[in-house]
Amino acid sequence: MPRNKAYSEDMVLEKAMHVFWGKGYEATSLRLLEKEMGINQFSIYSSFTNKKNLFLESIRKYREYVSQNVYQSLLKEDAGLAELKAFLMEKRKNINLRGCLVVNTAAEVGARDQSIAKEVNLYYDFIRDMLKNVLLNAKKKGEISPDVDVEAYANFFLGVMQGLSIAAKTLDESQIKDFISIALMKVK
Question: Which of 1, 10, 11, 182 shows the smallest number of beta carbons within 10 Å?
């Protein structure tokens, strides 16, 4: 008869996500995960098989986390250019110095590990689809030109968001404001 777990996998996964987010994949040791998750190595392996699978699950958890805590305004059915501008301007004020877990992972691991790269790209697909919806709505509302190539601009703003995540770690607020303002001018 299997033993009941004395912990919630969802709760320990969220703790692992924050550890990876702060330290990165390679710098995160199993000992640190044990300490921060509040479970032992056996339990980590029992629930997640290995560190890599735990990391992949953490990226999936991060996608869920940002959709509920970061991108709510852009995921609204009728979100348009006004919401994108407000989101980016608000983001510059409340930037997380840890950056984005997925952008950090892309920089750290890149394409060296195909399963991690696949998970990174699934996250980017989520962001790109969200941005396409925002831009399509902006077209319908007359906020941007009907000639705007939604696919191309969704890719552009995906890059802007990646860049913002990294730039905000070192640039001052006026530089970030310029970065965002010029990006938004490109779409009108």
Answer: 1
- Picking from 171, 29, 24, the residue whose alpha carbon sits closest to that of residue 101 is 24
Whole-angstrom Cα distance, residue 160 to residue 167?
10
Q: Thinking of the domain 1-69, which architecture would CATH place it in? A: Orthogonal Bundle (1.10)
Rounded to the nearest angstrom, the gap between the alpha carbon of residue 115 and the centroid of all alpha carbons in its chain is 17
Per-residue burial over 33-66, b = 16 or more CB atoms within 10 Å of its CB, e = otherwise:
beebbebeeebbeebbeebeebbbbbbebbbebb
Q: Do domains 1-69 and 72-188 have the same CATH topology?
A: no
CATH number of 72-188: 1.10.357.10
Q: Domain residue spans in the chain?
A: 1-69, 72-188
Has residue 93 got a pLDDT over 70? no
Q: From CA 118, how far away is CA 101, in angstroms rounded?
A: 14
**Element spanning 10, H or E:** helix 9-23
pTM of the entire structure?
Answer: 0.89
* CA-CA-CA-CA dihedral for 85, 88, 132, 130, to nearest 10: -130
Number of residues that this document lists for the chain: 188
With 80 as the cut, is the pLDDT of residue 121 above it? yes
The one-letter code for the residue type at 8 is S
Amino acid at site 94: N
Q: What's the whole-number mean pLDDT along residues 68-80?
A: 95
